[in-house]
Design a protein that fits this description.
Length: about 475
């Protein structure tokens, strides 16, 4: 795809620039800059418009569209057609004073792109050019330029390029190229997407792009996440502090969170402030979720109080859940699972949250919900969730699948899942696999399985917990 196919070259910026450049080269003062071009044009159209609209029209790349919209609409409606034709005659007379005038018309003609012209308009313009009816040619060009005014502003062009990119395949190079172009033109959505594209390969550059979108909670969240996890350099962290100075001084959006004074936690403090700003100003669910998780995992504390931290964590996570954040659903479910003896334990919510999490495909949600289904005797239903979790390398789910296939005499599948569980560092599965090897050695009268069991235990012995080590010793004896 050619980028010229997307960005219309005929607009109220380039046309006067092309003509002015030609006039300057030929020492003609009348149209030798964009200002004189528009001044002559407006004088021809209506003297009363010169003073009131001239400076605004010269700022046609600003976002102040309403200030000039009336005159553009009048031009597009044909109100000034006769005057505009008269202007084009004068303009072409000036151009025709020079022997190489056709070069200018050829240059303008080469900028015409069929996709942006109405068919009739396109044919008329090309016909006028080919027949050297240059006043008619210029009239059509200027009408088109004014007609395309709105969609040729940089912000609109950027959005057009962005929308063009979205129809392309997600993984195509062309899509990424157009997203980058739209990002350079200043489209906020494109900047966010471009930053996400390059985040893994160049997080510092990505964060600098996110800083251009500091009014976007998703951009701020990504910046905070990068700081919290030490993904960006100290130099980039300093840029963040400088650019977000106003946000960081907005104390009304911060809770009384305390953390230790190590350098890492100073950066954590910065990340938490940004999370809080997103949570309290924008009610951004990812920020609420992150704060809840940090509090519930005791990475940060509220007024140095464990009880108050837990209460605030549940408040944040509950708000995030109401806003549809699935990670928060999973976090709350795991919290209930780990605190079944607490007074605030809610068995119904634990099951409900794990069910929702699993049905949305969350890996841990699938694993825990599978375990709940096993407790309820719904073994076959549990397997599909264990398989989903295992596909995303969840070690406990792999263990459960191994146990299921062993009980159903599918020993090859059982061994495969046990091995995967061990490779994902659930080392207690070593003993289960060893016992399976021992069983196979007996029923098949094959000592190879005995040797495999012993080798397995000896290789992983140093990784095992003390309790498992005792059982392994007993097994070997």
């Amino acid at each position: 795809m050619n980028i010229d196919y997307i960005i219309d070259k005929i607009n109220i910026k380039t046309i006067p620039e092309i003509i002015s450049g030609y006039m300057r080269d030929n020492n003609c003062k009348k149209y030798n800059n964009s200002r004189s071009f528009y001044k002559e044009l407006l004088s021809q159209i209506n003297n009363n418009l010169v003073d009131s609209y001239l400076n605004r029209i010269l700022k046609y790349l600003s976002s102040d569209e309403e200030s000039v919209i009336n005159i553009f609409e009048d031009i597009n409606d044909g109100v000034y057609d006769e005057s505009l034709k008269e202007f084009c005659i004068h303009l072409c007379n000036e151009i025709d004073r020079f022997s190489e005038n056709k070069k200018l018309y050829e240059k303008i003609n080469s900028s015409i792109n069929r996709i942006y012209f109405e068919y009739k308009e396109f044919i008329e313009t090309k016909f006028a050019h080919n027949n050297e009816e240059y006043p008619v040619f210029m009239f059509n060009i200027l009408k088109h330029a004014f007609h395309r005014y709105k969609i040729n502003l940089p912000n609109i062009t950027a959005k057009r390029v962005y929308n063009e990119a979205l129809v392309l395949d997600d993984n195509s190079e062309e899509r990424r190229r157009l997203i980058e172009l739209s990002s350079e033109l200043g489209d906020q959505d494109a900047i966010l997407l471009h930053a996400s594209y390059i985040f893994d390969e160049d997080p510092n550059k990505a964060v600098e792009l996110y800083l251009k979108c500091k009014s976007s909670p998703s951009a701020l969240w990504k910046i905070a996440y990068s700081i919290e996890n030490g993904i960006i350099t100290p130099e980039t962290v300093l840029k963040v502090k400088k650019v977000l100075k106003d946000i960081l001084s907005d104390k009304k959006n911060y809770e009384d969170i305390t953390i230790s004074n190590s350098q890492h936690n100073k950066n954590m403090n910065l990340a938490v402030k940004i999370y809080m700003y997103c949570a309290n100003k924008y009610t951004f669910n990812k920020a609420l979720n992150r704060l809840g998780r940090l509090l519930i995992n005791e990475k940060i504390k509220y007024k140095n109080s464990k009880n108050k931290s837990k209460k605030l964590a549940i408040e944040y996570l509950t708000r995030a859940i109401r806003l549809g954040n699935i990670d928060s659903v999973t976090t709350m479910a795991i919290y209930y699972n780990n605190n079944r003896d607490n007074s605030d334990y809610d068995q119904y919510l634990e099951r409900k949250y794990f069910e929702i999490s699993a049905k949305y495909g969350n890996t841990l949600g699938c694993r825990y919900y599978g375990e709940i289904l096993v407790e309820e005797g719904l073994i076959d239903d549990s397997i599909k969730y264990f398989k989903k979790a295992a596909q995303n390398n969840e070690p406990v789910a792999c263990y459960h699948l191994g146990k299921y296939y062993e009980m159903n005499n599918d020993y090859a599948s059982a061994i495969r899942y046990y091995k995967k569980s061990i490779s994902l560092k659930r080392y207690s599965t070593v003993l289960d696999l060893a016992y399976l090897y021992d069983y196979l050695a007996n029923i098949e009268n094959n000592k190879t399985y005995n040797n495999m069991a012993k080798s397995l235990i000896k290789y992983y012995y140093k990784f095992l917990d003390d309790e498992i080590k005792i059982e392994c010793k007993q097994f070997l004896e």
